[in-house]
Amino acid sequence: xxxxxxxxxxxxxxxxxxxxxxxxxxxxxxxxxxxxxxxxxxxxxxxxxxxxxxxxxxxxxxxxxxxxxxxxxxxxxxxxxxxxxxxxxxxxxxxxxxxxxxxxxxxxxxxxxxxxxxxxxxxxxxxxxxxxxxxxxxxxxxxxxxxxxxxxxxxxxxxxxxxxxxxxxxxxxxxxxxxxxxx
Amino acid sequence: xxxxxxxxxxxxxxxxxxxxxxxxxxxxxxxxxxxxxxxxxxxxxxxxxxxxxxxxxxxxxxxxxxxxxxxxxxxxxxxxxxxxxxxxxxxxxxxxxxxxxxxxxxxxxxxxxxx
Lengths: 183, 115
Fold this sequence. Notes:
The complex is a heterodimer of chains A (about 180) and B (about 120). Chain A is mainly alpha-helical and about 180 residues long. Chain A has 2 domains: about 1-105, Orthogonal Bundle (Rna Polymerase Sigma Factor, Chain: A); about 105-183, Arc Repressor Mutant, subunit A (Orthogonal Bundle), CATH 1.10.10.10. Helices cover about 75% and strands about 0% of the residues of chain A. Chain A is built from 9 helices and no strands. Chain A has helices at about 5-30, 30-50, 55-85, 100, 110-115, 120-130, 135-145, 150-155, 160-175. With about 120 residues, chain B is mainly α. Chain B folds into 3 domains: about 1-45, no CATH class; about 50-75; about 85-115. The relative contact order of chain B is 0.03. The chains are: A mainly alpha (about 180), B mainly alpha (about 120). The interface between A and B is medium-sized, with 37 and 32 residues.
């Protein structure tokens, strides 16, 4: 049964992770609206399924749900791209046209805004977004969220050894990708 | 590449990522707050009706008013007294004495009848 203290504690926990979770989802799915939906769904799922769990367990559980929602989103996008490729009209050279890709972009895609956004931080987000899923998850949870290896293994549902391997590879890849921005 | 280099790189990365959380636009922040309120409200909805704040608050207020009225009316009057253990014991004793007297009377009556 949820008491007032539990509600307040849960609210405080969610307030503490919501921005970070959103940024993680945004980097992973590269879409603001999708990222907001993912975070909202993650919050609701945590509250419905795990509110009665001890507060110390919420963090890894929250990130496990977030990871699952991001994976679901990736899967949906793969299916969507396949459907679009199947039904889309072809261009002159016979390649199918992706109507989403060819639609006018958002305001933030204009050259001026893009230039303003250009910089090391964006390069970092892009580089993290390019990592293989498991490496990205391990890196974000260990570095960004500050989970230890055991907590990360709970969130990722894998062994602690796997966490260490993915994390080490992620750091190595990112250092290479961001070589130009090192100072 | 040394471990120290890695540590420095990781620390700089962590800082950059955490900084980026504070630069979310107002619309996104507002929608995140809204999502959180919705999630927490769904937890509130699971609480029994009698534990919800909007039910507890009026009940608490009514109890406070009743107490205040009781105290006000009680001013200057007799002190409220409740039967304590002692009074209860005395009452029990009186019943026992009555019974003993009755038994004694019966014994005397029997003796008189037997002659």
